[in-house]
Amino acid sequence: MITGASSGLGKELARECYYKGARLTLIARNKLALGSLLKELEPSSRKSDYGNFVQIYNTDLSKNDKFEEILKSAESRFGGVELFVCCAGLMETGTFLTSRQEQFREQMENNYMSLVNSLLPIAKEMCQRKKGRICIVSAAQVYMPIEGNSAWLASKAAVHALANSIRPELNRNKVYLSIFAPGAIDTEGWEKVSSKKPKSLLDIEGKPLSVEKACTELLRGISACDLYITTSPIFRFIRICSLGAAERGSSIIDILLSPFAMLICCGVTKYINFKSR
Question: Where are the transmembrane segments (predicted)?
Answer without folding.
Answer: 252-272
